[in-house]
Amino acid sequence: MEQIMRKNKQTAGNAGARERPMRQNPQGENDFRPVRFMEAGIRAVEDSGRKFELSFSSEEPYTRWYGVEILDHSGDCMDLSRLQSIGVVLFNHNTNKVLGKIERAWNDAGRGKAVIVFDDDEEAETIRKKVAGGTLKGVSVGYSVDAWEEVAAGKTSSDGRFTGPCYIAKKWTPLEISIVSVPADPTVGVGRSMEDVYPELSAWEAMVQVNENRVKLG
């Protein structure tokens, strides 16, 4: 009887965890702030050449070390308030290399899009010229997830849009947009380990990701 009560209590606790917002990755204890890369179709939108429009996110499934992740773009799942108020453009997710500002960000039929404006300092100008010339074409977004929906294998999500197994980010916030030089496997960010991009990620998680990448590349 005592074992049954403990099991029921644990089951109820797990159900409650699914209902309330989570600031944890689906299979760990640490806050999870991943990055995603995409070829963004960057294009200039004014004659000065300092303003560009790009895509920074989509609902394309991404395979992480814990499973398949999907960023839900429906309704108010994506919180753009941070990008709209204090959003910046970085180079390779380096917070010491600010290239410019985010003038506007919006959800366009399941894709996060933004208009960015490059600063006129020497470092930003160097990257701007490479973007304008087509040398740099990649964009990556850093984000945090506050609530997940776990979908078991063969099951469908609560809105009927996705089939499991997958983890759907139902409440997530883009933190910054980066122009990137060397896109890598989506589990490790842009040419570096996730530990380099976000130091708060545990060493164990970073090592798991590195080992998985070696298997894929081997």
Describe the structure.
The chain is of the alpha+beta class and 218 residues long. 25% of the residues lie in helices and 36% in strands. The chain has one domain (22-183).
Present the secondary structure layout.
Blueprint: H1 2-19, E1 35-39, E2 43-44, E3 51-58, E4 62-64, E5 67-71, H2 81-86, E6 88-91, E7 94-107, E8 111-118, H3 122-132, E9 138-151, E10 166-180, H4 194-197, H5 203-217
Write a brief caption for the model.
With 218 residues, the protein is an alpha+beta fold. 25% of the residues lie in helices and 36% in strands.
Please tally the helical runs, counting DSSP H or I stretches of 4 or more residues: 5
Average of pLDDT: 75
> In what range is the share of β-strand residues?
35-45%
**Helicity range of the residues?**
10-25%
Number of domains: 1
Total count of strands: 10
Radius of gyration: 19 Å
How does the major sheet shape up? 10 strands, mixed
> Topology as H/E string?
HEEEEEHEEEHEEHH
The helix-and-strand class reads alpha+beta
Distance between the termini: 51 Å
